[in-house]
């Protein structure tokens, strides 16, 4: 809050001066804000020179390839310009001070921090293009799938292979399920089995406990109404249209629309989050050098198996502005997630976003390959779904 305060100058004259926005902030908070601003400014200035950006990119690449701290001599050998090791060493010291590198031991080289991986993934790797060998292999692996289940399994395998991590596919939520055909059966105790068949033969079934008892005849009429009027619609659009019919033409649609809402409203059908997540390659985490602590590794594997956290973090890419979303440090999954990187992209069906897919792996990941592969898999996955 801005205001005024009185101060005394060295001659004890009282002056009335304006308060700034920071005068009301506790000193410790002002200090933290100042430190944060100085770190941001330092990082920005540290990468203003093209040479410095290239040195940092080369350090990250070298560390990803070897897993060993990177020396100035190693960088001078791969640097396109003729620079002395002393010049490179000074630049590395500046990058360390800016928070991009750290030195595990006094006599060792430097290792990238999360900030360095973030810079590399967002500024360098996103400019890469998929190499011809990977493109042909991915296309061949995903070709010929005839069902959503089959293309999901193939995509998960490809993503795990290119990242040496975990390939993840998030299926559409119940509301995004496309209805091709509905079937319903009455059980002797009054419960109702609802089976929803989607294009490609994908099925979702649910046993409901409706508030009133249905006859098999009513169920047949309701299923026939849905199949005739709503085949090719997603469930949430069906629900919205039924509600509109009840609002505008209640007398005409009261019975059939109410029954349909009771039996196929996605909110009533609900869903098991775990069934929406396909995970491939979890075992590859066991050999990752970032997880030598067995307790951390167990916590991470348990979090992956829980799956509901994966849905939250992967679906964040759907609202992201960039076509491929990169997240360095994924603590939403587990405390051990600070050593993880997530690369994800949305996929579509007939130009409508359905879900997301991606790779989860150690921060020491081949980002250029993983980012370009995720983008291409999302493209092929979308094309295949639209044809099924």
How would you characterize this protein structure?
With 388 residues, the chain is of the alpha+beta class. The protein contains 14 helices and twelve strands. The chain has helices at 27-46, 50-66, 72-78, 85-97, 114-124, 132-142, 148-163, 216-230, 235-248, 250-264, 266-269, 294-306, 308-315, 367-387; strands at residues 4-8, 14-18, 101-102, 111-112, 166-170, 181-186, 192-197, 203-208, 277-280, 325-328, 340-349, 352-362. The chain has a five-stranded antiparallel beta sheet with strand order 9-5-12-11-10, with helices on both faces. The protein has a three-stranded antiparallel beta sheet with strand order 6-7-8. Strand 3 and strand 4 form a beta hairpin. Residues 1-32 have low confidence and may be disordered.
Which sheet architecture does the biggest sheet show? 5 strands, antiparallel
Find the CATH superfamily of the largest domain.
Answer: GAF domain
Q: Rough shape? A: elongated
* Helix content range: 40-55%
Q: Report the CATH topology name of the largest domain.
A: Beta-Lactamase
| CATH architecture level-2 label of the largest domain | 2-Layer Sandwich
CA radius of gyration is 28 Å
Discrete helix count: 14
Write the element-wise H/E pattern from the N-terminal end onward: EEHHHHEEHHHEEEEHHHHEHHEEEH
The number of domains = 3
Structural class: alpha+beta
Strand order of the largest sheet: 9-5-12-11-10
What percentage of the residues does DSSP assign to strands (E)? 15-25%
**Unreliable segments (pLDDT under 50, ≥5 consecutive)?**
1-32
- Tally the beta strands: 12
C-alpha end-to-end distance: 60 Å
Broad CATH class of the largest domain? Alpha Beta
Give the overall average pLDDT. Answer: 82
């Amino acid at each position: 809050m801005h205001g005024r305060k009185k101060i005394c100058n060295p001659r004890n004259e009282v002056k009335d001066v304006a308060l700034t926005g920071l005068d009301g902030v506790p000193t410790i908070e002002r200090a933290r804000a100042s430190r944060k601003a100085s770190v941001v400014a330092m990082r920005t200035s540290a990468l203003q020179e093209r040479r410095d950006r290239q040195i940092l990119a080369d350090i990250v690449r070298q560390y990803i390839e070897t897993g060993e701290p990177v020396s100035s001599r190693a960088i001078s050998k791969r640097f396109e310009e003729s620079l002395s090791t002393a010049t490179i060493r000074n630049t590395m010291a500046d990058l360390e001070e800016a928070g991009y590198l750290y030195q595990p031991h006094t006599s060792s080289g430097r290792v990238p921090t999360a900030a360095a991986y973030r810079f590399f993934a967002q500024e360098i790797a996103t400019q890469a293009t998929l190499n011809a060998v990977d493109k042909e292999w991915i296309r061949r692996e995903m070709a010929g799938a005839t069902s959503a289940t089959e293309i999901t399994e193939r995509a998960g395998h490809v993503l795990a292979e290119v990242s040496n991590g975990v390939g993840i596919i998030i299926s559409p939520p119940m509301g995004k399920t496309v209805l091709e055909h509905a079937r319903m059966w009455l059980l002797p105790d009054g419960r109702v089995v609802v089976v929803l068949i989607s294009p490609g033969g994908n099925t979702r079934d649910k046993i409901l406990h409706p508030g009133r008892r249905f006859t098999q005849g009513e169920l047949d009429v309701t299923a026939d109404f849905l199949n005739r009027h709503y085949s090719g619609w997603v469930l949430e659009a069906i629900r919205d249209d039924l509600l509109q019919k009840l609002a505008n033409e209640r007398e005409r649609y009261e019975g059939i629309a109410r029954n349909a809402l009771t039996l196929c409203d996605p909110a009533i059908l609900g869903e098991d989050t775990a069934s929406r997540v396909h995970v491939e390659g979890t075992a590859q985490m066991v050999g990752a050098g970032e997880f030598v602590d067995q307790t951390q590794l167990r916590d991470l594997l348990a979090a992956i198996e829980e799956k509901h956290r994966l849905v939250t973090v992967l679906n964040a890419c759907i609202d992201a502005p960039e076509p491929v979303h990169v997240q360095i440090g994924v603590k939403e999954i587990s405390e051990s997630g600070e050593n993880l990187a997530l690369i994800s992209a949305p996929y579509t069906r007939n130009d409508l976003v359905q879900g997301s897919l991606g790779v989860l792996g150690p921060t020491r990941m081949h980002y250029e390959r993983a980012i370009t592969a995720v983008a291409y898999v999302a493209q092929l996955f979308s094309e295949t779904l639209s044809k099924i």
